[in-house]
Amino acid sequence: MGARQKRPLAFALTWAAVSVCLLMRISPLRITWAEEPSSDRAIHLPIVRVPACAPISGVTYEAIPVLEPSTNPPASAHPDLNLALRGYRLAPGNPWKGFVFYGGDADPYAPRLTDLFADRRPPTFANVYQVYEWDGHWPGSFWPITSPEVTMAGLAAAPGEILYLPGTFQPNEIYIGGYQALVLYAEEGRLTLKYTREDNVVWGYTIHLEGICVEPSLLALYRASDASGRTSLPGLKVRQPLGRARGGEVKVAVRDTGAFMDPRSHKDWWRDVPISGNIPMQWAFGEPWFQAHQRAIAERLAKP
């Protein structure tokens, strides 16, 4: 076959690839043609790269019933659910970007943050942040939380890598079928997850994820559930895909009974990661957030 005969074939194969990409909702391709191919050259089709916010193939989601009435004010306007209303800043003073150790009890029902990534890798703390406190009055006033000194961690990620629901160290089903968390709030770039079925952050663990691409079908289910009165909200099972990393960092904040915790705490969220050598000791026994966490652990362990 001569060079002029191969050019129509190349166009045909290329447009076939483009058509498939459009059907799969993959972002437009950049196609570069080289010089007129000679008779002994292969035809190179464009490389198809999955965009960071592409849907996740094969995932499905269901809503599960909540135990408390709908939140007030609405979730999108509630600083406990929509973290964008609080905001956060880079933690000043160059805090340690690694594991730290706090004394006290460890909770078997705490979220296991290694589950967030497919390979359960040890985290790389790219940045550390301080979430803003809210005075509890709507719309309210806000100021940086300084104890603990870090309340959000930016974990290094590959853009587009799939993220999963962190399970708990000891399985804790909140609804039949293996559900372990409830989606309290969702928009394109953030999620708020609750490890009980109350529509608030008052009791139990809450995780905020920022800088992500929420899976489109999960977002659609949340919006439909929210519009229908929030009597049910999307439930998630352990290691169920929930979205993708939007860029090179996924931001994670953890709360217990509403109080923001230190996401670097090895004993609490990362104790399945082996450590070598010493890690910095943090003294917090007199701090209200630490005391609230220890009381909540004792109450959870006291339940039959």
Give the arrangement of secondary structure elements:
Layout: H1 3-23, E1 62-65, E2 88-90, E3 101-102, E4 125-134, E5 142-144, E6 152-156, E7 162-164, E8 179-187, E9 190-194, E10 205-210, E11 212-214, H2 216-227, E12 232-237, E13 241-245, E14 249-256, E15 259-260, H3 266-269, E16 281-282, H4 288-302
What does this structure look like?
The protein has 304 residues and is an alpha+beta fold. It folds into two domains: 1-49, no CATH class; 62-302, no CATH class. The protein contains four helices and 16 strands. The strands form three sheets. Strands 1, 2, 4, 5, 6, 8, 9, 10, 12, 14 and 15 form an eleven-stranded antiparallel beta sheet that branches. A three-stranded antiparallel beta sheet has the order 7-13-11. It has a two-stranded parallel sheet with strand order 3-16. The longest helix has 21 residues, at 3-23. The chain starts with a helix and ends with a helix. Residues 1-48 have low confidence and may be disordered.
Short characterization:
This protein is of the alpha+beta class.
Sequence of secondary-structure elements:
HEEEEEEEEEEEHEEEEHEH
Structural class by SSE content: alpha+beta
- Number of separate domains: 2
**What are the segments in which pLDDT stays under 50 over at least 5 consecutive residues?**
1-48
Average pLDDT taken over every residue: 87
- The counted number of beta strands is 16
Structural key phrases:
16 strands; disordered N terminus; single chain; globular; 11-stranded antiparallel beta sheet; 304 residues; alpha+beta
